Each structure stands twice: as C-alpha cells, then as structure tokens.
Amino acid sequence: MDGIYLMTVFVAVSEKLSFADASRVLDISPPAVTRAINHLEQKLGAKFLERNTRLVRLTDAGKAYLAQAKTIIALLKEADAAAQGMNIAPRGHLKVTAPVLFGKIFVVPGIADYLQRFPDMEVSAMFVDRTVNLIDEGFDVAIRIGQLPDSGMKALRLGQVRRVVCASPAYLAKKGVPKHPSDLQRHCIIGTEVPAQHVNWRFSTNASPLAVKLKPRLNVISNDAAIEAVKIGFGIAQLPFYQIATHIAAGEMKLILEDYSGDHLPIHLLHRESKFAAAKVRSFIDLLSERLRADARVQ
After folding, report:
1. C-alpha angle 175/181/183, rounded to 5°?
2. Do the domain assignments include residue 156?
3. DSSP character for 186?
4. Is the pLDDT score of 221 beyond 60?
5. CATH number of domain containing 216
6. Range of the domain at 134
7. Both 228 and 247 in a single domain?
8. What pLDDT, in 10s, does the model give residues 31-74?
9. Looking at the predicted structure, is the pLDDT value of residue 134 above 70?
10. In this structure, what DSSP letter does residue 221 have?
C-alpha cells in the first residue's frame, strides 16, 4: 500500500480515535481502515494504536509518529496548492510590517511597485519601531533589522545596515571634532535606547573591536527624533547610514570617526509561510528581496 495513503488513514483514526468515524471521514470501508493500520504497523514494526471493542488510543510510538505524519501531510498539501497556483497572478490582501524609517524609505516604494505589477492585490502596511508578532497580529511579512531571536518564522537575509556617528556642522564648529571613540565621553550624546541610562556604541578597527560606554544627555524613542536633534545642533548620535544619507548629501550633517567603522546590523525578511508560500506572499518576497539586494545602502 502507498505510504501516504497509510499515513492519511492513521492520522484520521488518531484524530477521531475511532475506526468507524475515520472510515466515514475518508469515505472508505471500516475493513479498509483496519487493513491500512495493520499494514502500517507491520511495515514499520511498531504498535501505534491500542484498540478493543470500546476504545482506541495512541501508544507513545503512535503519538510520536502522528506528529511527523501530520507535518508531512501538511507539506504535501501546501506543495500541491503552490504548484496549482504557480502560474496564477496573486490576488487578495497582504499585511506587511517594518521599522518606521526603513518602511518609509525602502518598503513603500517596493509596495507601490508590487501593486502596479499585481492589480488584484491590496496591501496594508504598519511601520512601527517595535517587534510585531506576525501570528498574533495577523501579518504575512515583516522586515527586521538586528539579530533575530529564535522563532518558528522563516527568515531570509536581505543585506545589512551600517551604523555611523554623525553631528551637525554647527555642533562640530562649536564643540570640536572627536578624533577617537573615547573622545565621545566629552560630548553631548543623543541616545535611542529609552529608558537606558547608558549606551554602548561599538566600533571596529584593524586591530580589534572597541566599545565605548556613554551616558546620553538626551534619549529618544525613535530615530527620526534623534535625527532632528542632530540637525539642530544638540549633539552626536549613532544612526543607520541609510537614514541620514540625504541629510549628509544636503550638508545638514557630517560623518565623524569614519576611521572607526560602526557595527553592522543584518536585515531579514520574516514570513510565516512554509517554503511553499502562497502566491501573494511568494511574489512580494521575491520582489522586495530583489530590490533591497540591488540597493547599495543596504549592502
């Protein structure tokens, strides 16, 4: 007998804890159910079900096999669905989340491109500087910057962002230009780690990594607020380069300590689909990953 068929019968019996109920669900005869279970146990040399005239229950071996069997059957169903939808244009609704400034700079143009390519799609985007739970909050795709905690999500690395130290020309003219990371101790620091009393800015040189512990005079909860504080000449901040590139080009900010490279934060795209993702998710992932990987600001 076919292994998938035997697995399917076993799962039905295990979920119903009844040979008769499983036969009705599968639309096969009760003797056929019995033959399938007997054949499966003989084939694998294990007892999966304890049964008598009144009771059916799983053995320990049966419980372990059930978990694996359900996973395999689910993957097969997803593979079939993906194959059937491979040549079908995406349609429906997609929910996407990303950090505020990254979403504004990179994700919004990607969404606009996606919607132009697929007129039957709609997208809801939420840009927030907090970790969004995809399952609890019903999102299909999330962009995360930084190291990822362990999770059951599928993650695709898209690139990285470089953190740099910056200040306004007016501040540097008044307070001087730091030549070494330790010089930052004498400057007005803008932090983005509320409510931290201290921040650790990490650098690297040809010799070794270097970390400087600093006490901010101003802590803000969003990077756009830190950018504004830098622009008006309040102090020095360490920020992702992509967020301030236009301000650097406009002369509103200057990079400092360029001989000491800041740390690099990975960019990941997370989704809760399996590798056989729905067409709407798969097509968005393909489009956004292609765009980001081609952008020099996130290399």
Report:
1. 40
2. no
3. G
4. yes
5. 3.40.190.290
6. 92-150+272-298
7. yes
8. 999 999 999 899 989 899 998 777 889 999 989 898 888 888 87
9. yes
10. S
Task: Let me know if 198 is exposed, middle or buried by CB neighbors in 10 A (0-12, 13-18, 19+).
Answer: exposed
Amino acid at 266: P
pLDDT in tens, 244-284: 999 999 999 999 998 887 778 899 998 875 554 578 888 99
| Sheet strands side by side (includes 261-262) | 209-214, 199-204, 261-262
| Helix (H/G/I), strand (E/B), else coil: 193 | coil
**Phi and psi dihedrals of 22, rounded to 5?**
-65, -40
| Residue among 67, 133, 143 nearest 108 (CA) | 143
Q: Hey, what are 95's tokens?
A: 């929910």
To the nearest 10°, the Cα dihedral for 188, 191, 194, 197? -50
* Torsion sign (Cα): 23, 27, 30, 31: negative
- Quick one: which of 226, 229, 183, 187 has its CA closest to 203? 183
In this structure, what are the phi and psi dihedrals at residue 2, rounded to the nearest 5 degrees?
-65, 135
Residues linked to residue 27 through DSSP beta bridges, in sequence order: none
Q: Which residues contact 174 (CB under 8 A, 6 or more apart)?
A: 233
